[in-house]
Design brief:
The complex is a heterodimer. Chain A is of the alpha+beta class. Chain A is built from eight helices and five strands, in the order αβαββαββααααα.
Chain lengths: 164, 434
């Protein structure tokens, strides 16, 4: 019961907070793709892998008082920071087991930019394709972001690193 | 004439209670409708367990799929045709995607997917691109055509106008299911002026927009959707049936994994129990198959499987109370222990379920993964996001509503056995708002 909620709380706690909704979405997606048992269903939305279920779960956790959502005004846009409250830690301790076998992954992912995570998540979304097609597809759906060869190479290396 | 442009000698029509007639002129569409994977959708109900609440809701994914096709066909042939912003060469791919968008749905797919950790969208992709009748028809159009159709359905197709017609906040899928589900459930919600909306839809840059003169028709559509979700789709009794269904599948899987000898072997499920399934295994399932097993399993020796199947087949559903997980999660643990002491397995008889909906959402700068909003085309040629102009839509925009329920078998708590413990359970449940 509520174990899926507890997993999200555990992840945000392990990551020591996450800044940005997009970043949180992509982090969970990347972890799910490397085998971490998150159950949230992802679809390719207009701008990339996105889970409506995860958005709903985060909002529920905020309503329950287990996660704190703080708005940070960045002049041209608003950014959200998520941290776990004391009640949230109690909830996690009561219901959850640690979701990550390797807690370093949370820190590693958190150290990356939203742009890099969007790139990595999009490549993983098309991981059933050959690498050449995967890159072509990336450019087709994310043409406006102009990802460089270097960035793409880093993303592939990062995926391999996470899988080890 | 090449297959992509081949027309039937005479137009075929399907009588339809929602759109009056579904019109088919394209040979490809006619062939797809007759493919075995498409015909399978006749045996999968559109609304899953809702027929246990709304007895009319027996309609299938087959009829919904034809409906979505018909709406898209009207948009393309009656509204978009000849407009410079619309690429006519996309007509067939979008018609096929409309027709086939739900092809991967399985029997009672919501529960099935959860228990067996599968995704109907993966199956849709596999049916389109694997060794199937549908694939062989699509390949006759062009070798890469199955992939293109899969991309439209998967929302990764390069032309976003095409994707928007099938999946956006005002798309053909929603316009059909709201009206069709309202018709078959018999509720008076779900009605809106679709003809008006279709007439004011316009292709615009990389999306489909609505002429601002159609704003009130769109407001009506959004309110209809809101009401249908809370009155029909999230009905607590239908969710009770869904919970039991999920537990049946979970129990059968558990028993199979623990060496239980079924009197009625679960042949159709074995590949799903050990995750070795193929597309062929999946396509062999439909709701008739599942209901047959449930009927047969009523006489199984395992008391839990037998009881759950009897509950589902004979509509002896679980009772429910509202609960607040933020406050009550500790109480849930307490309840689970009491259920155990009372000899009622909480894994199968004490289930929390939540559901939520966001009626409409708009784009927030910096949050670009959110849903693409509905844009209105102003007489000046500018576009404006709907909730900026509509007070009604603004009132419900971005506001998620969530409902939590706790399901349990009420009659087992008053059967006179282990009275004291059951009294404690009842009291705890009452605190939760029985």
């Amino acid at each position: 019961m509520l174990q899926e909620h507890a997993k999200i709380v555990d992840f945000i706690s392990t990551a020591e907070g996450v800044t940005g909704r997009k970043k949180l979405q992509k982090m969970i997606y990347i972890l799910k793709k490397i085998g971490v048992p998150f159950q949230e269903k992802y679809e390719f939305h207009i701008y990339g892998p996105y889970s409506e279920e995860l958005t709903a779960r985060i909002e529920e956790l905020c309503d329950m008082g287990f996660i704190l959502e703080q708005k940070e005004d960045k002049s041209s846009y608003v950014q959200y920071r998520y941290t776990v409250t004391d009640e949230g830690l109690e909830f996690r301790n009561a219901l959850g087991k640690p979701v990550l076998e390797n807690s370093e992954h949370a820190i590693q992912l958190n150290g990356k930019s939203a742009r890099f995570l969007e790139l990595t998540a999009t490549l993983l979304f098309f991981d059933d394709l050959e690498q050449v097609e995967q890159i072509a597809k990336l450019h087709s759906v994310k043409g406006k972001l102009n990802f460089t060869e270097e960035e793409i190479g880093e993303a592939f290396a990062f995926i391999e690193e996470l899988k080890q | 004439m090449d297959y992509a442009n081949q027309k039937l000698a005479e137009e075929k029509v399907f009588k339809d209670p929602v759109h009056r007639y579904i019109h088919v002129r394209d040979q490809v569409i006619w062939d797809l409708i007759n493919a075995r994977e498409f015909q399978r959708m006749r045996r999968i109900k559109q609304l899953g367990t809702s027929y246990l609440v709304f007895h009319g809701a027996e309609h299938s994914r087959f009829s919904h799929s034809l409906g979505v096709y018909e709406i898209v066909r009207r948009i393309l042939d009656d509204i978009f045709h000849g407009r410079p912003e619309w690429d006519e060469s996309e007509r067939l791919v979008v018609l096929c995607a409309a027709l086939l968008h739900d092809l991967g749905h399985g029997p009672f797919s919501h529960s099935f997917e959860k228990v067996f950790n599968v995704d109907h969208e993966d199956f849709t992709r596999e049916i389109l691109q694997g060794d199937t009748e549908v694939n062989s028809i699509l390949k006759k159009v062009a070798p890469d055509f199955p992939k293109k159709v899969a991309e439209v359905i998967g929302k990764t197709y390069a032309n976003k106008q095409v994707v928007s017609l099938i999946s956006s906040q005002i798309d053909a899928d929603r316009m059909d299911y709201l009206q069709r589900d309202a018709y078959y459930t018999g509720v008076s919600y779900g009605h809106f002026d679709m003809e008006r909306i279709l007439r004011v839809m316009r292709p615009f840059e990389d999306q489909v927009v609505i002429k601002s003169s159609g704003m009130h028709a769109v407001e009506d559509y959004i309110m209809s959707r809101y009401q249908m979700y809370w009155q029909v789709y999230f009905h607590p009794v239908a969710r009770s049936a869904e919970v039991i269904l999920r537990k049946i599948l979970q129990r059968a899987k558990y028993l199979s994994g623990h060496g239980y000898k079924f009197e009625q072997p679960p042949t159709h499920f074995l590949a799903f129990f050990d995750q070795s399934f193929t597309l062929k295994d999946y396509l062999a399932l439909d709701e008739g198959v599942l209901m047959t097993y449930f009927q047969l399993w009523i006489t199984e020796r395992d008391p839990i499987l037998s009881d759950l199947c009897d509950r589902f087949v004979n509509r002896r559903l679980f009772q429910y109370v509202d609960f607040d997980p933020g406050k009550d999660y500790k109480k849930l643990g307490e309840l689970a222990q009491l259920f155990q002491k009372a000899g009622i397995d909480p894994e199968y008889y004490l289930i929390d379920d939540s559901t939520s909906d966001l009626p409409y959402d708009f784009y927030r700068p910096g949050e670009e993964e959110e849903r693409l909003p509905i844009h209105l085309l102003m007489p000046t040629g500018d576009i404006k996001e709907l909730s900026r102009l509509s007070q009604i839509v603004d009132g419900i925009s971005g506001k998620r509503r969530t409902d939590y329920k706790l399901y349990f078998p009420a009659e087992l708590l008053i059967d006179g056995k282990k009275k004291e413990i059951k009294q404690q359970i009842i009291e705890l449940l009452r605190e939760g708002g029985v």
